[in-house]
Amino acid sequence: MTNSATSVLTAMDTRPAAAASSTAATAASRASIKNLPVSLFAAVMGLSGLSMGWRLAHTEFGAVVPLVVSDVIGLFATFVFVVLAIAYGAKLLRHPAAVKAEFNHPIAGNFFGTIAIALLLQSAVLGHYNGTLGQVMWIAGTIATLLLAAHVVSRLLGGNCHPAHAVPAWIIPGVAALDIPVTGSHMPMPWAGEVLLLSAAVGAVMALVLFTMIVTRLIQHEPLAPAMTPSLLILVAPFKVGFTTYVNLTGRVDLFAGLLFYFGVFLFVVLAPKVFRRSVPFGAGWWAVSFPLAAMVNAGVVYAGVRGGWGLPLLAGGMLVVLTAVLVVLTVRTVQVLLSGRLLTN
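Now predict its structure.
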């Protein structure tokens, strides 16, 4: 899968060198912070999830998995988060109408959930170094997540939603609510337990309802646009994040947890060939694959650590290495399109 994913993400531009150079120069001249997509915060989600995966692997499998890898990736994720927060803050100050339009868009608006999830995951990453900072970020992420979930549900219940707008990105606010128990199960506040239950309830029901609507749309209507194809893997996230949420709340990996885990694996096997194809153009939307993959790896590490044997740990370790390779490629390709100016053009 590593070679396949790498070839798909790197073999995107077959134009003559002169034409490509001219296009890049034109794109650079039209680049504007106004066009910074909020969906790019999915990069923070993927990188933070990868850091958590390496830390989990170190906890489950011992010194054979070096903890320093988690630390390096986590700090890089924090750096990306800070850069994006500053850049999007500049967009908000200079182009508030563009941010408002993005927030109210029936599809793009759901990607504001990536900011909330990034806060929650960063609380888990940075909480290992400073507990107070981790708690503050978790509280901020929790408030943002629940407010966004309420807004999304209110908008949907307002009616007049076009069936074509039911895309995998709709699941993001529901998954965000599920990430509250994933990242906050150790919070010491006396009220935290009730917030975890509330968040799990909101996230589980939202994910179930929206998953059904999205699958119905995919079956009965036209396929997703090529640029949105990577977002198909978001459909894996509710089952993998749901697995971790359930395990954190109950403290055990039982039959129901196993069902969530294996259906997520099945769904990934079905969707991966549709996503990792040469015909899918590279763009910021490719980061939509990062967090579902990270959630699958983290669930795999936990499941393998409980079930034991040699096959499952080997598989989980292989998945962790593949995810790392995919995110390295995504990072390099994103820097390339950013430097060329294409990332910030319409």
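Confidence is low (pLDDT under 50) at residues 1-25.
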